[in-house]
Design a protein that fits this description.
The chain is of the alpha/beta class. It has 9 helices and 10 strands. The strands form 2 sheets. A 6-stranded mixed beta sheet has the order 1-2-10-7-8-9. A 4-stranded parallel beta sheet has the order 5-4-3-6, sandwiched between helices. Strand 4, helix 3 and strand 5 form a beta-alpha-beta unit. The longest helix has 17 residues, at 152-168. The chain is globular and about 60 Å long. 52% of the residues are buried. The structure holds 4'-deoxy-4'-aminopyridoxal-5'-phosphate. 4'-deoxy-4'-aminopyridoxal-5'-phosphate (PMP) binds next to helix 6. 4'-deoxy-4'-aminopyridoxal-5'-phosphate binds at residues 72, 74, 179-185, 224-226, 267, 269, 295-296.
Length: 330
Amino acid sequence: MEYVEHVVDLVGNTPLVKLNSLTSGIKATVLAKVEYLNPGGSVKDRIALRMVEAAERSGELQPGGTIVEPTSGNTGVGLALVAQRKGYKCVFVCPDKVSEDKRNVLKAYGAEVVVCPTAVAPEHPDSYYNVSDRLVREIPGAWKPNQYANPENPASHYHQTGPEIWRQTEGRITHFVAGVGTGGTISGTGRYLKEVSNGAVQIIGADPEGSVYSGGTGRPYLVEGVGEDFWPETYDKTICDQIVEVSDADSFDITRRLAREEGLLVGGSCGMAAAAALRVAKDLPEDAVVVVLLPDGGRGYLSKVFNDRWMASYGFLPPDSTGATVGDVL
Ligand code: PMP
């Protein structure tokens, strides 16, 4: 019989899919690393597994313990899957800009969800970083993976995502593009690809307009899961050769086109990374191989980027194309 012991055993080894339509006029090969095919539906399954196993080894996480983490959803799903497998409880803290769909997914996996305001500074007592710290102090046996500072986050990409991409491209990758949130993906994957290619692979971070990585102050943007208003420890500033700044409008346009033209129903940060990858690929020769990592699927965003009225309410679609008018309560 062909089966795995647990769904967690399916984490990683995601495929590369060639982009065909969005790349019209581009000579280089652009390959998408499709992370929604992980069992929890995102790239974050990878870091969840590695962070939990390291905490078990160090004794920080004991049998019957509770995992407490500020997460925009995807890390929560990964942690919830691993927690189920190993018998831990989960409490997740989300900013209120995270869609209700995503929060309900966490609850469906059996986690408890605490919602905090997005529009407060990280040092504010109600910020999702501070609320999670308080919960860790109050809950006995609590352990906070802290994906923003945990070295196992970039390490999971150094040991797994990077080698997968190198093997899948038979060492022909020339450019790697990924969005930057905690920076774990770009720092870990980028470090591996730099090392294995003697510095030949170019590493390109994609960042929402307004975020610190592309010189912003952290002003609000709508794309979820990427960009920061502070510099996390998991982001290694020495890895990226280039940071490409992408507007919400471009991120969402490419997100919708990925679904419509490439059959890839993915989240807004995927459109952002793909927009950056296409911009980079435009000037590259035929033998260039650009790999862009698409972190999650689009089902958590059906009421946002895939909803015409929501898009029109922010001016990303003309109001007359949807029936919504200015001032409409959506
Ligand atoms: N996209 C989404 C949807 C995410 O949840 C995250 C993680 N915050 C990222 C991109 C960025 O990945 P990383 O944290 O590894 O930089």
